[in-house]
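Ligand: pyridoxal-5'-phosphate. Inputs:
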Amino acid sequence: MTVKENLKTIKKEIDAACQRSGRSPEDVHIIAVTKYVSEERTLEALNAGVLHIGENRVEGGVEKKVAIGDRGTWHFIGSLQSKKVKKMIDHFDYLHSLDRYSLAEEIDKRSNQKKILNCFVQVNISGEETKSGLSKEQVIPFIQSLNDFHSIKIVGLMTMAPFYDDSERTRPIFRSLRELKEEVQALKLPFAPCTELSMGMSNDYIVAVEEGATFVRIGSSLVGNEKG
Ligand SMILES: *Cc1c(COP(=O)(O)O)cnc(C)c1O
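Predicted complex:
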C-alpha cells in the first residue's frame, strides 16, 4: 500500500473518532514513525502530506533528515542517552521521552540558552516493568523540579500502552494520562503549558484519539515496518 492510501484510511478513522468524542480533527497531529523504513519511504510520507516524522535513534534519524533536506517537523520518540543530547537538539524539534532529571539537566546545558526544546514527559501509566517513563505519582514533582531550566518547555505528556489484541483495553490508560495532563495544566507553570497528549500507535490510535490524543505516533499501519 502507498503511504497516501494508508494516510487516507487513518485520517478517516481519526475523523470518525473525533466525531464520536466531540473533538475537532485539526487538533490531532499524525506523526509518521519511520524508524523501520528507508529514506525513500520517509520522503514518500512527506510527499503524501505527512507533516511530522518520528524517529527513535539519533544517528539513523539525523542521517535521514539530512539526506531529505529540511522538510517536516522531526520528533525524537526513543529513549535518549545523555551523550547524544547535543546531536538530538540540533536536529529535532520535539522530544517525547523526557523521563529523568539528569536528562533535563543535559538538555539545558547543551542547548546553551539558544533553543527551547518542546518536551513531552514520558509516563508509564500501565506500570509495566519493560516500559520506560515516570510513574504517575512522580510526574508533578518532576515537572516542578524543572523550573530553572530555561531551555525546556513541557508541551505535554506521552505514554505507550501495552499491546492488547482488544485495543479497547487501552482506554483506561489513555484516560488516566489525560486526567494527569489536566492536573499539570491546572498548576499554570509558565514553562509547562502541557496542552498536548502524545498517545496512540498503529494498534490503538483510535481509542487514544477518543480519549484526547493530540499527537498519534503511527509506524506500521502508515509507512510499514520493513526496510525497503
Ligand atoms: C515504534 C514506535 C511507535 C510506532 O509503532 P507502530 O506500532 O508501528 O505504529 C510509536 N511510538 C514509539 C515510542 C515507538 O517506538
